[in-house]
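User: I'm new to structure prediction. If I give you an amino acid sequence, what do you actually give back? Let's try with this one:
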Amino acid sequence: MIAALLLAAALVADPVNASPETAAVSAPAQRAPIADTDLREFAAIAGRKVVGRAVGGPYANADKVLLIARGDKGYPTVAASIGFPVRQSLPSPPATTLAVIRIHQRYETTVPGPTADDLAFVAANRLPLFVIGEWARPAPMWEVAWVDDGVRYRTIGEVGEIGPWQD
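Assistant: Good question. You get back a string of structure tokens that encode the predicted 3D arrangement of the chain. For your 167 residues, that looks like this:
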């Protein structure tokens, strides 16, 4: 057992001599500016399951924020679920986060969609953000991403189908 741990530590310390399988497992997940299909579908299903549930904590009117990462077997999972003040910008998430879901209770833009804070979060972090509106049923959803050196968004259907990118 100790020999196996020492071997694993040596392989991590010297990745040149590590086998490709070990190197792939030990490398941290790379953040992509646009979510993979499985992350988008997971966000569409898992995010909408949270719609309509009460938010506990000190905020009377809070957004729900879900951090999405990959589990031990490589499948998307909710790494954290928190309530966050409505009119506050999201901070940078942990490095293991591959996407973020923000569920707004009310829309604050002239046309429902991502807010200026949502767009600023993606511009700052180059991380996909899924915005879901609780104000309607079925809950509308948008994917906000860094595309072609700018922040763009598109609609996401009930099971992950996508619309065209918009500015």
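You can read the tokens as a compact description of the fold. Here is one thing that stands out. The first strand starts at residue 62 and ends at 70.
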